[in-house]
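Problem 12. The chain below contains 222 residues. Write out its predicted structure in token notation.
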Amino acid sequence: MADRYQDTMGFTVTGPSTFLASGHPGPAESGTRPTHLGLIRTTDAGRSWQTVSAEGDADFHALEEAGDSLYGFDSLSERVWASTDGGRTWAKRATVAALDLASHPGSAATVWAATGTGLDRSDDGARTFRPVSSAPGLVAVEEPEPGRLLALTADGRLVASRDGRTWTEQGRLPASGEGRVLTAVTAKRLLAADSADAVYESVDGGRVWKLLQRPAASSDHP
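Solution.
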């Protein structure tokens, strides 16, 4: 977008053409900006970005808006940060090995953390987490409706749960790349990406997936 590049690590859509992200500056800005961008914001669908907070101090690998709260997993401190003013100021909360975070505006005190080896749950706004027994290893998790979880396993299975303990396989990504990213636009319309940088869409809650994009060559960037 706009002939610019940045190494985006965390990303979330918060409104029309309005996104929050984190990561590292691109080659054109190397040496002129801190290594970690902190929290950045765009209101023109990615054409331009402004720093919100924590430049040089945080590298959010997951960002999740939940009602008036914003949660970010900072890979530098390995803690979940929480904000109630759109990310301008933060409270540093629990340490957790998170690959992805999920919450819902209707139950913002409940925060889920996909850890790759399982699932952790917080009921106090990310102040404390506890492992969810019998949860499979999850790399991405979403809560599109209160009490309804959708998640992606490393081998590309889309699984669903009401309580985080009992899971049902809904479908599977069609390619051999490992699962990596999941976004629930609604409970039915899902977007996913795998480790080969292919992007897929499902409109039936993850049962059937179609390929949207497969790059000619995989990116060298994580």
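Discussion. The chain is about 0% helix and 50% strand. Students who got a different answer should revisit the alignment rule from Section 12.3.
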